[in-house]
Design brief:
heterodimer; A: mainly alpha; three-stranded antiparallel beta sheet; B: five-stranded parallel beta sheet
Chain lengths: ~160, ~120
């Protein structure tokens, strides 16, 4: 079973309790990979919290990184503006390429998520091949985002290397 | 279908998803992965169309592409894309706007509307 590594929150950074939204998310993800459905279902059964897929369309400021650890899920809010680091702000330890790659990945996550939602809504809830392609891309890129976040985290604070966010 | 939009980015996923989003709005996307290819396309296609260029490219950068268009008085309209956030203050005749990465649907649509209104 795959872990639900990362979901975007809504623009205000609010967590959304697992429930009907998570069930919808599970149904959508099932079309992509049954293992993702199982992961979301496990999160619901365990009383954990996750964000709903519709939040992808309005996400402006925050990511949730959810990572199972000793029976729980750790979530942390990361303001996106902190990731789009303007040059000359004193973050000399951050390689520009890392932030650049991360911003590309975050763009791809948002655009693929929004595109999938709009296509599904347009087609009355049907996940056609185009929406499926966007969802597959969304899931593929989230892995890249987490890798980028971990790399950035280590560069900002080497003491945090290897620890959860 | 409206005029094609040239997308210039060395990130393959960005090219794919921006092209898909443009398709959602009935725009045809033409994707190239380097500034060199962008300049070649611009030189071969002298018309007023939208050109979305990533600032950070290996070799010819987004700034260079903008300079090229300005120097040749090309009618293309340039949108610079970057995660660095410092190019918003730029001013050039062909510069239509700036997309701060990470950007979403509405950000892109707003620039398409500005382009159409121009």
């Amino acid at each position: 079973m795959r872990e639900p590594l990362l979901f975007l929150a809504d623009g205000a950074g609010n967590e959304v309790p697992a429930g009907a939204e998570a069930t919808t998310l599970a149904a959508l993800l099932e079309a992509v990979d049954p293992e993702y459905r199982d992961a979301v279902a496990a999160a619901v059964a365990g009383g954990r919290r996750c964000t709903m897929l519709t939040a992808l369309a309005s996400s402006e400021r925050a990511l949730f990184v959810a990572r199972p650890e000793s029976g729980g899920v750790i979530c942390q809010l990361i303001p996106l503006e902190d990731l789009a680091v303007p040059p000359g702000l004193g973050l000399s330890g951050v390689r520009r390429g890392t932030v650049h790659d991360l911003c590309n990945d975050l763009s791809a996550v948002r655009l693929n998520g929004e595109l999938a939602l709009r296509l599904i809504e347009r087609d009355g809830g049907v996940v056609d091949d185009e929406a499926l392609g966007a969802l597959q891309a969304l899931l593929r890129v989230t892995v890249e985002v987490e890798t980028g976040l971990r790399r950035l985290e280590q560069q900002l604070d080497p003491d945090l290397s290897g620890q959860t966010l | 279908m409206t005029a094609p939009v040239l997308i210039v980015d060395d990130n393959a996923e960005m090219l794919r998803v921006v092209e898909r989003v443009l398709g959602y709005y009935d725009y045809a996307g033409v994707s190239v992965a380097s500034g060199e290819d962008a300049v070649a396309y611009l030189d071969a296609n002298v018309d007023r169309y939208l050109c979305m260029v990533d600032v950070t490219l290996p070799g010819i950068t987004g700034y260079d592409v903008l300079d090229h268009v300005v120097a040749r008085q090309h009618p293309a309209q340039i949108v610079l894309m970057s995660g660095a956030g410092a190019v918003g203050a730029l001013d050039a005749p062909n510069l239509l706007g700036f997309l701060q990465k990470p950007f979403g649907f509405e950000d892109l649509k707003a620039l398409l509307d500005v382009f159409e209104a121009g």
